[in-house]
Amino acid sequence: MNEIFKLSLIFSTIRLSTPLLLAALGGLYSERAGVINIALEGLMLAGAFTAAAVTHYAGNPWIGLLAGILAGMAVASIHAVACIRYKADQVVSGTAINILMIGVPALLSGAFFLSSGSTPQIPKDNLIPWTPVVIAFLLVPLTWYVLYRTPFGLRLRAVGENPGAADAAGVSVNGMRYAAVLLSGALAGIGGAYLSIGQSSLFTRNMTSGRGFIALAALIFGKWRPVQTMLACLLFGFTEAISIQLQGVKVGGEEIPNQFIQIIPYVLTIVVLAGFIGQARAPRALGMPYQKER
C-alpha cells in the first residue's frame, strides 16, 4: 500500500483536478448570478470535441484551445437564451444540453472522421502543455478578487441574491446573467479541451465521464466560494488519482475489484450532493427567472 502514496500521486491529483476546477469556477460565475448550470457536462464535451477536431486539422493546440473555448461559449449561449430570455426551467435546459452533447460530437465525428467513437490521434508535439493547469489555479485568487473586490463581482453577486434590488440600483440583471453564463461556457470549454488535447490525445465519446456533475458537486461542497471550491476539486481529483493507483493493488493477497475502485469518485459525489458533508446556502435567487416589473 505504501507504493500508492508517493510524489506521483500529488501530480496526478493536480492534473485530474484541473478540468474539474475549470468547470466548477465556470459554474460558480453562472450560479452566483442566479442561473443554475447543470449543463457543465455538455459544455465540457463541446470544448473537448471541438478542441480535438480543430487541433487535428490545424496542427496547433492553441488554435484548438481557442476553438474549444468558443464552442463552450456557443453552447452556453443556448442555455443562457433559453433560461434568461425565455424563462425556461434551468435544470431542464441544462439537462437537455447534456443529452444533446452526448450525441452531437459522435454525429460530427462520424461525418468528419468516419468514426463516431473517437477522433484521430493527435501527435504528441501538438498536445497542449501544462498551461491549463496553471490557468486553473491562478483563476482561483483572480475569481476571489473579481467577486469580492470589483464592481463587476458586486453586481454579479447582487443579481444572484436580490435581482429586484440590483435592478432598482441600475444594474442590468439579464446582462450580468448573460455574461456569467457565457463565462461559465468559456471556462468549461477550457476544461474539456484540456481533457482531449492535454490529458489525452484524442476525443472519445462521452470522455468527460460525469466530470461536469462532479464539478457541480465540488461547487456545492465549496459553498459557491472560489477557495473552498478549489479544495473540493482537489479532494475529488485525489479520489480519482487514488482509484487509478489502486488498480492492480492487492490487499491481503486479494486484488481489489476494478469496478469497485472506479466508483470511488462517484460515491463521494453522491455523498456530497446528498448533503452528508456540511450544509451550504445557495444564492437566494438561484434558479429563479427575473421578470422586470413594468
In short:
The protein has 294 residues and is mainly alpha-helical. It has helices at residues 7-32, 40-58, 61-85, 90-113, 131-149, 151-161, 163-168, 173-199, 211-221, 226-246, 258-262, 264-273, and strands at 250-251, 254-255. It has a single domain, classed as ABC transporter involved in vitamin B12 uptake, BtuC (Orthogonal Bundle).
CATH class call: Mainly Alpha
> What is the CATH third-level topology name?
ABC transporter involved in vitamin B12 uptake, BtuC
Sheet-strand content, in percent, reads under 5%
Helix share, percent: 55-70%
**How many strands in all?**
2
Structural class: mainly alpha
What is the overall silhouette?
globular
**Average pLDDT score:** 90
Biggest sheet, spatial arrangement of strands: 1-2
Number of domains: 1
Keywords:
294 residues, mainly alpha, ABC transporter involved in vitamin B12 uptake, BtuC, two-stranded antiparallel ribbon, 69% helix, globular
